[in-house]
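Collaboration report, partner site 2.

Our partner group contributed sequences for two proteins of shared interest, and the home lab folded both. The records are reproduced in the order in which they were received, starting with the first partner submission.
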Amino acid sequence: MAYDLKKEDEVKDYIENIGIEYRFGCYKEQKPEVCHLLADYLEAIKKDFEKAAKVYKSNCLEYKFGKSCLKIGNYTLIGRGREKGDPAEALIYFEKGCELNDPGACLHAGMLLTATGPGVNIQRDVPKGYNCLKKSCDQNDDMACHYLSGMYLTGVPKNVQDFNPHNPEKNKNIDYLIKPDKKEAFRFAKRACELGNMFACANVSLMYKKGDGVEKNQDESKRFFEIAQSLQKAHETTKEIKFQQGLDGK
């Protein structure tokens, strides 16, 4: 049946039929991809976050669909579709998604496992978190590569309380889980930049300028600065277009 999407009643019928098709594909045909679409439909169209959460969770644990693990992880982290957030439970879903090779789930798992500070109720496990971030970066997630670059730039102290960002000389005498390594920091920053991370491009520019982890090169510094500016403008343009079109990014 062809729908006239200029007519409100036909738009409503079209939307309802999409929901019926997704339910059939998920519950009857048991297709994980369609179950994820059903959850997206419940989230974006119906605004029923509780039901969406149930579908994402089931699709993650029963059908082993990595993208759904990422979504239910995010829901659990921020408390969407439930009373309150639970980072420790969210980590379970992120780790499951990472096992299923979803780069976003690996990124979130890695960040939670290496996080410190008030309100963090997760046992810090930097080696495990590093492996999650590395897996995500290897799957071309720009934020994971950027995060790894930062870890190598400052190092990851065994005891966070011993680290003083304003006293580099004192930091030389503390124990590190990951020692500062400017060359590795540059390598991951450049990879993140290649994947379109404007902050990483700005860091690469600065590292070329200062000779951190790479030989000084003013021409390359200028080139990467221009790349960072170009990516920033593209990002601002995209945000403006989304605003004008009424789009709500996930």
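Second partner submission, folded after the first:
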Amino acid sequence: MLTYATSGFSEDILSDSFCQTWFGVGIVVGMVSIGTSNFLILLRLWVLWDRKTRLVLVTLSLFLVTQITAIVCTTYVVSSMMPLVVFEPYLHSCILTQKVNFVILWTPGIVFEFMIFVTTWWNALDQPLPQHAKMAKVMYRDGSIYFFVLFGLRLLNLILSIVSPLSLMFLGVFFIWSACNVTLTRLIINSRRAAVEAEESLFIDVYTYSPRSWPLLPRQGSCVSENYELQGKGPDIEICTRLSSSVTSVAT
């Protein structure tokens, strides 16, 4: 709809109210989409941090504060922008007739992502050998890509909103929206892949057979499947204990 309204390729004559509605909807849905992506990243990080209460509370509080601020700022920007959006018949496009203060639209997201990035790497340095090594590798690699891409694009949009002419105000908006979804999808797919690999590795460790076909004891700690962590659950120590006991009795 936004392409239809702003590309200039359509020969339809649109109303100003149509332009105002879809500009507002586009900004709101875009900010909600990015906020949802940030929360999904936060859920993955909580798993990686073994749900340490202090870290969870601090990052959750930061997320709530920045998102509430973003909602207030988005509401203000959309309400200020509405009267300034009109349809230009000569260009066959919806246009913004005057600059709006988009600086406040990008600032909360920049603050949140920077603080999460610092917290993640501070925790990584504090615990350089996390228990869930495969997931940690995925999160630190793809999470860093996610951070640098989104942080860079937010910064670009922030700079454009300050120094650019009116015609370039929306230059980076759709880049950050699409890049957010692409990088988040990459992270989730890779974390799922790490989960499958961890589950297969656990299966091989537990059901290893000797030449006499007697099951051997699993390696110490191998029963704590990383897949539990990737699915948002804690390691099932009771199941591990029963499994080790049953394998011991069979081997005996």
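Feedback sent to the partner group on the second submission included the following. The first helix runs from residue 2 to 6. The chain has two domains: 2-201, 202-251.
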